[in-house]
TrEMBL record:
This is Sporulation integral membrane protein YlbJ. Residues 43-139, 218-311 form the Nucleoside transporter/FeoB GTPase Gate domain. Keywords: Membrane, Transmembrane, Transmembrane helix. The chain crosses the membrane at residues 6-22, 42-66, 78-99, 120-141, 147-169, 204-229, 249-268, 288-311, 317-339, 376-393. It holds the Pfam family Gate. It comes from Salinibacillus aidingensis.
Length: 399
């Protein structure tokens, strides 16, 4: 019976979206173009180098090398192997869903157990600094200093999620062998891992490129689909209806009703939610609390990407989802605590020395980086898509 109910719900949902697109073709097209522009200019060129590099490092045993070195602090802190440090660092640097992609890769390589993978994926999916500081802080709030606060709350909140999730499935902890720091053993693990992989360098690099491009194509599809769904839900007044349910909850925490609609939009797609939040008439602190929660929750768009990646393994989705809720709560609480020391006090000090117009209009590293991606990102994306096509065509011809 449950299976039949699921089938009816999925079919009804797909039919509803199809009818909504037919009724609102222009708005659906605009939302689709917005999603593909985000993927084309920012997501693909920013994630591809990290994905390819990670694939190569895993194949050459470098991840195993750093895993041995980092085991002494990753195991006590997060109850995961040292290789998790690589996933954690890459997840923060490149952004979601890199953490899920690399966790799944380590699980497929049998470098981590199922429970360890579920712990790891719960706290290694984070937004990258470019999106937090350039897109949100500068692009929406026009304030780079705000990006420091958002980044600290986001990454520190993820750290606390890792601490909490270390107790998930903790029975496995008693079976782990405690390892000490050993460079000799690290090099030995690196060599053994490399020897197990008999592929030549050209094959490894080709596989890394094609696998990364295929993953990014899937990510692009989810970004476009959820961009359209989010827009249609707004047009059909479904998002405002859901937002009314949160107004009573917001009133308990002293948040204004105007933030309920951006909050719901952010639960579906982070970028739109953050943009709508920045345009409300609420106070800056209230806006930051909502943005921090939305960033930590990842949005259903990113969660769907993660679910698709994890479906290729035996890693369950629920620990990741639980981690997203915890991350949103931790990040919001940290924003409430750190707003004054990390932003208000610093802003008051700098505003006394630097004219406000100079501060806002001065070019920064992050704004220039965002402009660089928007300008050269499409060329980079097109180039590597062609490379991927050529590699797959050559393999099909030789195979």
């Amino acid at each position: 019976m449950n299976g039949k109910v699921k089938s009816i719900l999925f079919a009804s949902g797909a039919l509803f979206i199809g009818i909504a697109i037919i009724q609102n073709p222009k708005e659906a097209l605009d939302a689709s173009q917005r999603g593909i522009s985000l993927w084309w200019e920012i997501v693909f060129p920013s994630l591809l180098p990290f994905f390819i590099t990670a694939e190569v490092l895993i194949a050459f045993g470098v991840v195993r090398f750093f895993g041995v070195l980092c085991e002494p602090f990753m195991r006590p802190l997060f109850n995961v192997p040292g290789a998790g440090s690589f996933v954690w660092a890459m997840g923060m640097a490149s952004g979601y869903p890199s953490g899920a992609k690399l966790t799944a890769r380590l699980r497929q390589e049998k470098q981590i157990s199922k429970i360890e993978a579920e712990r790891l994926v719960s706290f290694t999916n984070a937004s990258n600094p470019l999106f937090i500081i350039a897109a949100i802080s500068i692009g929406f709030f026009h304030d780079e200093q705000l990006g420091i606060l958002l980044a600290v709350c986001h990454y520190l909140g993820n750290f606390f999620v890792g601490i909490c999730m270390r107790f998930y499935g903790k029975k496995e902890y008693s079976h782990q062998i405690k390892r000490t720091f050993s460079i000799k053993r690290a090099f030995q693990e690196l060599h053994e891992t490399r020897m197990k992989d008999q592929r030549p360098f050209g094959k490894i690099l080709g596989d890394s490129v094609t696998n990364s491009i295929q993953t990014l194509m899937m990510i692009g599809g989810f970004i476009i689909v959820f961009s359209v769904i989010n827009r249609l839900l707004l047009l059909m007044d479904i998002t405002p209806l859901i937002g009314q349910l949160f107004q009573s909850i917001f009133s308990i925490f002293g948040l204004p009703d105007v933030l309920s609609l951006p909050f719901i939009a952010g639960l579906f797609e982070i970028t739109l939610g953050a943009q709508m939040t920045s345009e409300t008439t609420s106070t800056l602190l209230q806006q930051i609390i909502i943005v921090c929660f939305v960033l930590g929750f990842n949005g259903l768009s990113v969660q769907a990407q993660v679910a698709s990646i994890l479906a290729e393994t035996d890693i369950r989705f629920f620990p990741y989802f639980l981690g997203r809720i915890l991350h949103g709560i931790f990040a919001s609480l940290l924003a409430l605590i750190l707003f004054k020391p990390l932003y208000a006090d610093v802003k008051q000090t700098t505003s006394g020395d630097v004219p406000v117009t100079d501060y806002v209009n001065a070019p920064s590293f992050w704004s220039e980086t965002l402009h660089y991606f928007q300008h050269y990102g499409p060329v980079f994306t097109l180039t590597f898509l062609l490379i991927g096509v050529l590699i797959m065509f050559n393999r099909s011809r030789n195979g």
